[in-house]
Amino acid sequence: MVRVGQSFVNVAAGVSLALVVVMPLALLVGLRNQLDEAITPIIMLVGALPDLAILTLLVTVIGRGNVAAVAISAFSAFFPIYFTIRQGVKEIPIDYFHVASVFKAGRLDTFSKIILPSIFPNFLTGLRLSFEFSWNVLLAVEIIASVAGIGSFISNSIQGSSHSMTYGLAAIMTVGLLTILMDRAFFERLEQRIKRWR
Q1: Are 46 and 130 in contact (CB under 8 A)?
Q2: CATH number among 3.30.450.40, 2.60.40.760, 1.10.10.10, 1.10.3720.10, domain 2-197
Q3: What pTM was computed for the model?
């Protein structure tokens, strides 16, 4: 259970780090077409590269500790958050900004009253996808590259004795239950509230 908690904390930290970096970038790209044309193709190219190969190389450079796990989670979370927020900004009707200009709304008011409410469903979708994707990728890298966490524990348990395999199977079930619980208890409920709010 401690290993599960360790991996979960690493994923949460990685997703949070990605969010801090991606949020302003995705907003700028969504609002500026020239910036979008310059940056998004590069991000698409990086996102198309084989994840496990890149992340295994990252582990070789950084090491097999928590820092590598957080970096892996942040890298995996970057792309779902970026593309969902970018798309959300681009879907805001231009008339909203015209109205804001007519009423001489400042940047803070425009962001808090127009942009943020409009992109929030996309933001939540990106957060949900990034968590699920980062969790799966981190577990895979933990197994392949022996990064500290529940993945390496499962790998070592399955390769050990029959008694150890029981612990490995129990860990797999725990990971599955935690993933479902996080999705249903947090993200699904929050999405339902947003639908009622909208």
Answers
A1: no
A2: 1.10.3720.10
A3: 0.78
